[in-house]
UniProtKB/TrEMBL annotation:
<dbReference type="InterPro" id="IPR000477">
    <property type="entry name" value="RT_dom"/>
</dbReference>
<feature type="domain" description="Reverse transcriptase">
    <location>
        <begin position="1"/>
        <end position="82"/>
    </location>
</feature>
<protein>
    <submittedName>
        <fullName>RNA-directed DNA polymerase from mobile element jockey</fullName>
    </submittedName>
</protein>
<keyword id="KW-0808">Transferase</keyword>
<keyword id="KW-0548">Nucleotidyltransferase</keyword>
<dbReference type="GO" id="GO:0003964">
    <property type="term" value="F:RNA-directed DNA polymerase activity"/>
</dbReference>
<keyword id="KW-0695">RNA-directed DNA polymerase</keyword>
Amino acid sequence: MEKAFDRVWHDGLIYKLLDTPLPPAFIRVVTGFLQRRSFCVAVDDVLSAPRPIRAGVPQNSCLSPELYALCTDDIPTLRGHL
């Protein structure tokens, strides 16, 4: 799945985390990990204003694969139908 980690919707992921038995302190850590992230674009010597990132889990983070798995865990599969 191309760019799958880029498409994880932060608010939806936090909603799913709140529906798990995970400790509230851990959910606060993950929420802080995802919120207040931004990006800028540089073209030649001009840097754009920061823009918020509302989707995607950070690349090269050991937590990102787990967050992606949690986000996609409830997607129905065709297991047994193929």
